[in-house]
Amino acid sequence: MQLRTAYTQRASRSKHYATINASERFTVEAAQAAISQLSVMFILILVGFFLRKLNYVTHEATLPFNSLLIHVALPCLIIASVSKVHLEDVASQLVPTFVLAFAEFLLLFIVAILINAVLKTPLTQRNLYVFMSLCTNTGFVVLPVLQAVYGDQTVMLSSIFVLMCNLFMGSLGIAALESAQKGQHKLTGFRITWKTLWNAPLVACVFAIVWMFSGLTMPDVAQSTLSLMGGICTPVAMVIVGIVLADSDLKAIFTDWRMYAYVVIRQLAIPALLAVVLAPFVADKLILATTIIMFAAPAGAMVQAFAQRYDQDINLAASGTVITTLACIPIFPALIALLSVL
Questions:
Q1: DSSP string covering 23-47, please?
Q2: Fewer Cβ atoms within 10 Å of its own Cβ: the N or the C terminal residue of the chain?
Q3: In a 3-state reduction of DSSP, which class is residue 299?
Q4: In terms of C-beta density within 10 A (0-12 exposed, 13-18 middle, 19 or more buried), how is residue 133 classed?
Q5: Cα–Cα distance between 66 and 238 in angstroms, integer?
Q6: d(CA 116, CA 110)
Q7: Is residue 89's pLDDT more than 90?
């Protein structure tokens, strides 16, 4: 009896230490992956910042590049993100991932509205906070972190979240910006019309969904062209963020307490709570991890381009991109450590 008890205690301790080691390993790998991707982004921001400070570019020069990003590069990126997804590889995970991805971005929309109310966000900034919550950097930042920690299979699952992100951004997100452009900042002012839906990112998203479920294979030339063109989104957008920051009051941008409160609520507190709530019901841990880390994604590099296109506060957009992205360095490892023990 004593021998059995001692064996049980040793086994329990071994399991405990294994859990701790796994948690530490995931935390380290997550931090390394996050820092690697974020370093690239901030170097590009610095490039834009110094290009503007040295007068190599003007603020007005960013306008045509914003149009190129929104109307050409982003649609290419959306289609390229799913053109290599093979349904047979994720057949058993497809339906629950689609359901969770749809529910997640619907929840993000609701959370953004509640955060605006709790933080008493200025009326003219509320719609941009909503857009910032839907237009997240699911691809360049989150996907590599998930891949580094959980393996290549998360790439397929992440593609579905990227697709859903663009679906909500192109519908509810752009409706929010159009409403703000017309001076309608309240929730009752949101109007989704056929004109609103007829935008390049959403059209590309619908095409991508149809293509993915068709089971067709895209020719290598088309895939390479789309990937190459879509690949300019992040570098060009981050350079533009740097240009905007160079013309901004940096002290005002980095001392906005609402942005830090937004980060704590939207990127840390709610994802952590969601992980605890979903863990007993989502048996597939890869799907659970993808869902939680995607919820904590930072504001996308494209937020500033859309803010400028719809006459919104580009300083707030640049601030949101930079601060929410920096916050990923401690937040991602913390959430992954939590997931490892659930």
A1: HHHHHHHHHHHHHHHHHHHHHHHHH
A2: N
A3: strand
A4: buried
A5: 11
A6: 10
A7: no
- Dihedral of the CA atoms 314, 133, 102, 218 (nearest 10)? 40
Average pLDDT, rounded, for the chain = 82
> Is 230 within 8 Å of 287 (Cβ atoms)?
no
Alpha carbon distance 66, 46 (integer Å): 18
Please write the tens of the pLDDT for every residue from 11-20.
Answer: 444 433 333 3
Nearest-5° Cα angle at 165, 107 to 215:
125
DSSP secondary structure string for all residues of 256-280: -HHHHHHHIIIIIIHHHHHHHHHTT
Ranking 89-98, 105-114, 142-151, 176-185 by mean pLDDT, the lowest is 89-98
Q: Which residues pair with 299 in a beta bridge?
A: 136
3-state secondary structure of 301: coil
Tokens, residue 327:
């916050």
So what's the pLDDT on residue 3?
A: 40
Contact yes or no for 241/110 (Cβ under 8 A) = no
Q: What single DSSP character describes residue 289? A: H
Burial class of 4 by CB neighbour count within 10 A (0 to 12, 13 to 18, 19+) = exposed
Q: Is the per-residue pLDDT at 100 higher than 90?
A: yes
